[in-house]
Amino acid sequence: MRVINFAHGDMMVWGMYLAWLLATRLGIDPYLGFVGCAAALFVVGLVVQRGLVDRIVDAPHEMQILLMLGVALVLENGALLAFGPEPQRVRSALTLSTFWLGPLFVDVARLVTFAVAVALSLALYLFLFGTDLGRTIRAAADNAYGALVIGADVRRVYAVAFGIGAACVGAAGALVSPFLPFQPSAGLAASVTSFNIVIIGGMGSLLGAFVGGLLVSVAESLGAVFLAPSLKELVSFSLLILILLFRPAGLFGRRAG
Amino acid sequence: MPALLRLDGVEAGYGDMVAIRGVSLEVARGELIALIGSNGAGKTTTLRAIAGLLPCRGGRIELDGARIDRLRPAEIVARGIAHVPEGRQLFPSMTVLENLELGARTTEARRLRTGTLASVFALFPRLAERQRQLAGSLSGGEQQMCAIGRALMARPRLLMLDEPSLGLAPVVVTSIFDNLARINREGTTVLLVEQNVLRALGLCHRAYVLENGRIALTGPRDRLLADEGVKKAYLGR
Ligand SMILES: Nc1ncnc2c1ncn2[C@@H]1O[C@H](COP(=O)(O)OP(=O)(O)OP(=O)(O)O)[C@@H](O)[C@H]1O
Ligand SMILES: [Mg+2]
Question: Domain spanning B1-79+156-237: which CATH class is it, in words?
Answer without folding.
Answer: alpha beta
